[in-house]
Amino acid sequence: MTTIYYGECSLDTQRYYLATTDAGLCFVGSPDQSLTEIDHFIAVDQLVLDQARLAPFVTAIQTYWTGQTTNWSVPIDLIGGTDLQRQVWTALQTIPYGQTRDYSQIAQQIGRPTAIRAVASAIGRNPLLLLIPCHRVLRKDGALGGYRGGLALKRQLLELEQNPHH
């Protein structure tokens, strides 16, 4: 039975729930959503409030949010997902800060060039908003596409990464 510890992180006026295992951060919620959102991403056995345990992750996210860092140095723990989803999430982590890719490029990167819809679906199931940079994936025509955190947040993150010291 895996114990998952959770806490909150505030960015500007929005609240994000975070969750971690002993191995690393496993979930970042959407802005201002309830903690029950975690159930859509991870099978939770035991959920324990422990804000102190989440403190290093909160700090990392806040320094990214303010443009003070461009990479993540905190451990993550991908405890959910199918093999394909994990392949996609791993591929997303290779997109450099400030750059974007399209869905077909990710499909090619994982060796499944015709699986564009499956790749898009896997991106939508990303449990680690912000840390696994699904916001860096655009449609082939350059349009934003979808984003679990909302298109306004996706646009804001892309702008932050284009101008990190705003």
From TrEMBL:
<protein>
    <recommendedName>
        <fullName>methylated-DNA--[protein]-cysteine S-methyltransferase</fullName>
        <ecNumber>2.1.1.63</ecNumber>
    </recommendedName>
</protein>
<dbReference type="GO" id="GO:0006281">
    <property type="term" value="P:DNA repair"/>
</dbReference>
<keyword id="KW-0489">Methyltransferase</keyword>
<dbReference type="GO" id="GO:0032259">
    <property type="term" value="P:methylation"/>
</dbReference>
<dbReference type="GO" id="GO:0003908">
    <property type="term" value="F:methylated-DNA-[protein]-cysteine S-methyltransferase activity"/>
</dbReference>
<feature type="domain" description="Methylated-DNA-[protein]-cysteine S-methyltransferase DNA binding">
    <location>
        <begin position="84"/>
        <end position="162"/>
    </location>
</feature>
<dbReference type="InterPro" id="IPR014048">
    <property type="entry name" value="MethylDNA_cys_MeTrfase_DNA-bd"/>
</dbReference>
<dbReference type="InterPro" id="IPR001497">
    <property type="entry name" value="MethylDNA_cys_MeTrfase_AS"/>
</dbReference>
<dbReference type="InterPro" id="IPR036217">
    <property type="entry name" value="MethylDNA_cys_MeTrfase_DNAb"/>
</dbReference>
<comment type="similarity">
    <text>Belongs to the MGMT family.</text>
</comment>
<dbReference type="Pfam" id="PF01035">
    <property type="entry name" value="DNA_binding_1"/>
</dbReference>
<keyword id="KW-0227">DNA damage</keyword>
<dbReference type="InterPro" id="IPR036388">
    <property type="entry name" value="WH-like_DNA-bd_sf"/>
</dbReference>
<dbReference type="InterPro" id="IPR036631">
    <property type="entry name" value="MGMT_N_sf"/>
</dbReference>
<keyword id="KW-0234">DNA repair</keyword>
<keyword id="KW-0808">Transferase</keyword>
